[in-house]
């Protein structure tokens, strides 16, 4: 078997494995959402806000899984022998991170009202602890997001600098 055909078969196999894995994860996640919704529906003491929050997390989880699948598949489409493959791979990773961060912000925004409504019932001492915890988590997330974005900026700069310095291969002289 030729190396080119072998490479194509390996790539096709990897694409198929990724597709089947994500399909299985999506089915599992969907069934977990249904089972959780059914279970929470049978427990009358669970507040409606809690049920809605769980529903939001499962919905956003499905979106995140779809986004990860899209970016993993686009990574497999790259020509890894091309000169710009590292830059293209960095772009795929950055796009995935931006999608993940936007989904995290969407979850935070969708659940903010639910958290506020749920914490109204707490004593003021407990509410201040919940607020402190929530602010700490959000602050940590924003710090992490900032670090990741700065790392992508630095990686792009380094790749641009390296591509300027790297000499091109000289053609071999015929013997």
Strand portion: under 5%
Stretches where pLDDT falls below 50 for ≥5 residues? none
Radius of gyration: 23 Å
Which sheet architecture does the biggest sheet show? none
Query: Distance between the terminal alpha carbons, to the nearest Å?
Result: 30 Å
User: Count the helices. How many?
Assistant: 4
- How many domains make up the coordinates? 1
Q: Identify the quaternary structure here.
A: single chain
* Strand count: 0
Element order, helices and strands? HHHH
What is the average per-residue confidence, as pLDDT, rounded to a whole number? Answer: 81
Fraction of helical residues: over 70%
Structural class: mainly alpha
Shape designation? flat
Describe the structure.
The chain has one domain. It is mainly α and 175 residues long. α1 (3-41) runs antiparallel to α2, α2 (48-76) runs antiparallel to α3 and α3 (85-119) packs antiparallel against α4. It has helices spanning 3-41, 48-76, 85-119, 124-165. The chain is built from four helices and no strands. The protein is flat and about 80 Å long. It starts with a helix and ends in a 10-residue tail after the last helix.
Quick take:
With 175 residues, the chain is mainly alpha-helical. It is 83% helix and 0% strand. It has one domain (3-165).
Provide tags for this entry.
mainly alpha; flat; 175 residues
List the helices and strands and how they pair.
Layout (H helix, E strand, L loop, with lengths): L2 H39 L6 H29 L8 H35 L4 H42 L10
Helix pairs in contact: 1-2, 2-3, 3-4
């Amino acid at each position: 078997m030729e190396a080119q055909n072998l490479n194509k078969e390996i790539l096709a196999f990897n694409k198929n494995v990724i597709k089947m894995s994500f399909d299985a994860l999506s089915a599992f996640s969907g069934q977990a959402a249904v089972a959780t919704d059914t279970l929470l529906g049978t427990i009358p003491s669970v507040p409606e806000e809690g049920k809605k929050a769980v529903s939001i997390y499962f919905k956003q989880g499905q979106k995140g899984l779809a986004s990860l699948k899209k970016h993993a598949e686009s990574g497999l489409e790259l020509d890894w022998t091309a000169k710009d493959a590292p830059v293209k791979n960095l772009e795929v990773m950055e796009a995935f991170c931006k999608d993940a961060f936007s989904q995290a912000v969407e979850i935070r925004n969708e659940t903010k009202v639910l958290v506020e409504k749920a914490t109204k019932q707490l004593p003021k001492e407990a509410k201040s602890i919940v607020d402190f915890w929530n602010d700490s988590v959000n602050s940590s997330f924003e710090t992490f997001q900032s670090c990741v974005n700065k790392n992508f900026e630095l990686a792009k700069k380094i790749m641009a600098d390296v591509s300027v310095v790297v000499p091109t291969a000289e053609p071999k002289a015929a013997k």
